[in-house]
Amino acid sequence: MNREHLLELAEKYGSPLYVYDTAIIARQYERIMNAFADVPHIQLNYAVKALSNINILRFFKQLNSGLDTVSIQEVQLGLTAGFDPSQIIYTPNGVSLDEIEAVAAKGVQINIDNLSILELFGQKHPDIPVCIRINPHIMAGGNSKISVGHIDSKFGISIHQVPHIHRVVENTGMNINGIHMHTGSDILDIDTFIRATEILFDVAHQFKNINFIDFGSGFKVPYKEGDICTDIEQLGVQLSERFNTFCKKYGKDIALMFEPGKFLVSEAGYFLSKVNVVKQTTSTVFAGVDSGFNHLIRPMMYNSYHHISNLSNPEGRDRYYSVVGYICETDTFGSNRRIAEISEGDVLCFKNAGAYCFSMASNYNSRYRPAEVMIHDTKDFLIRRRETFEDLLQHQDLVDL
């Protein structure tokens, strides 16, 4: 998306503003599908938590994607977007049995990640097939907060507890129809990921009614020029051969599943914010924008990098700035960044703003959440209006004191 178009959107819809380009989403989707073209049955289930606007979900339905959900609310969003229950997998963590039962009643594929709930669910609903989330005890994420396959993780049933799974299955008569893992986000080392898949194959061989293996996702995208990312094409070569060999040994063709989120939508997103103030201190030049970690928390929460450019003055002399927000705490988007000279009123663009950005936004400091715009077939659509003061009060009840 070019600079002029983004500036036009900022002028038309105001700032701060999230913009999503469906052409990039489709490109990323096709990259994975093409990388695994040698697998007879490949199914991508978009991870709703990355970006849950219902219009984005409807676009994924057009791509023939399924959905990966982690809450009953995400399931409801998927159903509202037109997905069939059979196209949705539900992989919660730490939720009540009541919620799992409510989702199961909708006909959605259930994925269970702890022995206690597995036993309770199997006792009450032995006829409902479930998938098992395995923890392979492999550290594959790029940050401790998004690495979920290691031994200290709260996610999944340990590979050392597989005998306990068999005991539950024998005692309840329940049917295990899928095996799942997710090692974490920002995977760089394909060999480490492949080691985890071999563990999953070993587990899958122990169950006789498997219809699919879900390998999670966590594929890394580039955040800056020259950045390392997951080589999805090479992964396709290595894993496709192993998966097809597994199917032959298993005796039937089952589905290979992934649940990508960031890989599909991160690069499709742009966050536009206007500069309120340029402030020179004794050591730093701050560019303070009309946003903060209430809208884009990833830099403060994960130390994540978002490339920042000055759309209003791209040919200006490069200077060094710390780009900060208006939240009444340390609120830094980027420190000591080389950016074309910034003046008050300039529009800055934060790249890789499609995944875990708006979906993690809040009303902290009683600020409004921004608008969202989708670009589809070169047309722009407002897919979420900017909040107002009335929105802040909508669910608050006044009481007589």
UniProtKB/TrEMBL annotation:
List of residues binding pyridoxal 5'-phosphate: 218, 356
EC number(s) reported in the record: 4.1.1.20
Protein name as it appears in the record: Diaminopimelate decarboxylase
Sequence positions bearing N6-(pyridoxal phosphate)lysine: 49
Family affiliation: Belongs to the Orn/Lys/Arg decarboxylase class-II family. LysA subfamily.
Pathway(s): Amino-acid biosynthesis; L-lysine biosynthesis via DAP pathway; L-lysine from DL-2,6-diaminopimelate: step 1/1
GO MF annotations in UniProt: diaminopimelate decarboxylase activity
Entry-linked PANTHER family: DIAMINOPIMELATE DECARBOXYLASE (PTHR43727), GROUP IV DECARBOXYLASE (PTHR43727:SF2)
Source domain of life: Bacteria
Residue span, Orn/DAP/Arg decarboxylase 2 C-terminal domain: 18-354
Residue ranges occupied by any Orn/DAP/Arg decarboxylase 2 N-terminal domain in the UniProt entry: 25-266
Keyword Amino-acid biosynthesis attached: yes
Keyword Disulfide bond: no
Needed cofactors: pyridoxal 5'-phosphate
Transmembrane portions of the chain: none
Record lineage: Bacteria, Pseudomonadati, Bacteroidota, Flavobacteriia, Flavobacteriales
Biological role: Specifically catalyzes the decarboxylation of meso-diaminopimelate (meso-DAP) to L-lysine.
Catalytic activity: meso-2,6-diaminopimelate + H(+) = L-lysine + CO2
